[in-house]
Amino acid sequence: MKWHRKTWMLALLAIIAVLPVLGIACGDDDDEGDEGGTPATTATTAATTAGGSPTKAATKSPADEIANIKGDTTGVTDKEVKIGSYYAKTGPAAVYNDIQLAWNMYFDEVNKKGGIAGRQIKFIVEDDGYNPSNTVNVVKKLVEQDQVFMLFNALGTPTGMAVLEYVKAQGVPSLFIASGASKWANSGPTIIGIQPDYVTEGTVLGKEMAEKQKGKKYGILYQNDDFGKDGREGLKKGVGTALTLVGEETYEANAADITSQALKLINAGAEVIATYATPAQFAGVLKSVKAQGKTVTWYSSSVTASGSTAKLAEGAMDGVITAGYAPDPTDPDPDVQKVVKFFKDHGVANPTAFHIVAWVFAEHLERLLTVTGKNLNRSSLIYAMENVAFQGDWTSTLLYKPTIITKDDHRPIEAMFIQKWNQAAGKFDFDVSKIIDSETTKR
Amino acid sequence: MKMTGNYRQGIERFIPSPAEAVVLATLLFFTWYLYGGTGNDVFAGLSTFIVVAIAWVLGVAIRVALNDMRWWLLVIALLLVMAPWLALNTFQIAVMTEVLVFSLLLHGLNVVTGLTGQMSLGHGALVGLSAYAVAILVDHWDWPLLPAMAAAVALTFAFGFALGIPALRLAGPYLAIATVAAALVFPLVLKLDSVQDYTGGVQGLRLHKQPQPPGFIGGFLENESIAKIPEQKKFAPEEVQVKERQKFAQATYLYFLCFGVAAIGTFAAWNLQRSRFGRAFIAVRDAEVAATSMGVNTALYKVTAFGISALYAGIAGALLYMVVAFVAPESFDLFNLSINPIAYLVIGGLAAPGGAMVGAFGYKWGPEVIKKIARTDTDFDKLQGALTGLMLIVVMTRMPQGVWGSLTRLNSFSWKALINETKAWVLSRTIAYWLAIALGVAVVIAIGAWFAPVWGVFAAGLLVVAPQDAWAGVFLWLRSLPAIGRRRAPAPGDAR
To answer: Which of A399, B105, B277, B443 is deepest in the core (most CB within 10 A)?
Structure first.
């Protein structure tokens, strides 16, 4: 009897082994017939709706044209516009939550003054914990259940990548994504990032390293996703052959501690470490490397360029060099101080660089909605963004160079500078005259 | 279980009785007559077919219901068929689709945990394996979706047997720990540098085209979707409305694909339990030594249980990828897909296909409901843990057979018995015990109301006093107060 059962099992296993082969055979015959269907239809509809290029551009100015564009008005009424976003309110990337809270304060104020074009701005911000699987779920909810008009300043590279295709297919504009992935710049008319992309930023940082640390050994420590990989690509490009690379280490976005990776690099002889890490992990590694008595020069991405990172690092951030595109709240510039005062009046004890960038992001959205005006729909919004709102003369009150967005240039903020954290003064030292505007040096 | 005159067994259940045949023929005639007037023959034929098919399924369901006196089966079946039209929007349809997918996973867990009594915490890895296998075959080797899904399910099935091998030597918590290894390692393996080209690392893999409803079904569903267009979009340009209809058709099509698979899966699970295999599984669970002495090959049955279970998990994984169109390592972590499903299976009811369905429903809708209650996202995190723990405690102490088990016992339900039982339970404890509980509850509510006046209810107390699952511990502690608790030794008739 036993023998019979064994043969039975063997036969079963044999069938299992053969099945995939059969599958391949079927696959060849099938030619994607039954699943093919009409996959492109939704995408093309989205593209045509969103593109909405005017036909009579020659006779009318672009600004007048906006009022005539018809399109999808989901989430828009005469009284209100519903805008969605997702942020990490919990988990390792929850430091960024300040940004979302800050632009909510900004628009609360705008709403009190009567809103934009008579409409109140209503935000629905979902928590995805910086976990792409959650993002897929919350964005589906925002789009299909809450019926939001657009997504604004959604946080994160891996999270954004997970929903990019869906958001595009649904025709929902996802504007000013809080991530510097280079992918946003060429993902179609309805998608756009906000900050300088990480490749450009990495190149700027790398060039600075090549200039100041020539001949030294360096290591790269980066987050194992598009954020980190883009940064690494830029760094290597910028450094060239000026420094010797002794090693590259990665860590996962949800890692609690990345000290061992940094120590590996130091033990390999690295005198300079360039990191593409998020604030919590970066602060942690600074602290523990300092506690171990090792000295190393740190170069870090603009995402960590904030007083709140320094606070997390408990004094270990002194001398860290980062790239930046917005001023620090300690900047004596009257515009900056006005913004700082605004947030202090709204109950934020110590406004950080996150509050500053949130202000910048919010100004971009306000500008766009103001320019689009009464006739607000998804097509007119994109048209206004690409043709009217950001054509070179508008500058955010806190930035140094105007923001430029055109049909072919979906990279809003491109001017950057190098800055160094000064722990004693509690602020970044930098030279405004040395702003590197990548706008002029397009790739 | 009440036997009636028309009691039928096996395949006979699916053959219409003469009376039903008359009803079906009438329906056939009328639908043909009604839709025939549109001049669209394909459409008329299809509609007729669908209406008759639904009537036939209902006929079978009614018979089963009458035989078993489980009338709510009928209601549930009806609600499930109508779910896409009951749902308020396509997001809810998608959630319902996932409920069906997860019911398959829970059926699988049921075979291993409920029937065979083996603890597996590694099912997240099995679901992930299947989902990733489909994803890689489709994404990397350009396989069509259907063969890729078949291959992935076969692979998972084989892998399940392998996962069952530790079950031969390990028992209880040791087996649980051995299987946990699979669930813990799986997401890490996906992120290894050497396989990132295939798995996409943390970024995961996307399905670029979900199955589209074939022309005529799509047309039918799009026509039926008119009421589904959100108020906002009713005045939008034509192409927006067309897209909205396509969205509904797509979501509903996916729903019914999963509905078909889940229906077959549920039926198979239900049959399995009554088969030779099922009885052998139960024998292994209840008394392994006795089963061996009766000639049951325990080793074979344990491994087979894991295999069958993996088959279900594999189907669930493949469907999950098709429905969500995205996989990332974080989706398959220990909590999401290994521990939570078991918790909800226990809440739903072990060793019963219905329990798996109820569990899947709770698994998907529970968090959505809790999200509505919680004011902030941090509250949500805590509340979810607290409420899941609370539910587990209540179920384990008050309804050992889960929600479904309690439902099926409603047949013999009588208010009198309930009152008597409750009375006996209350009286079996001293006044001091009840005073202590009342005081505790009062303190919790008071603190809750103080810190969060908006809630002012029990839930706030849960949050403030006992973050996360600590509340479950409090309950356990209360239950273990025999010294002041019990007045006399428990008699056999006492409620637990």
So the answer is: B105
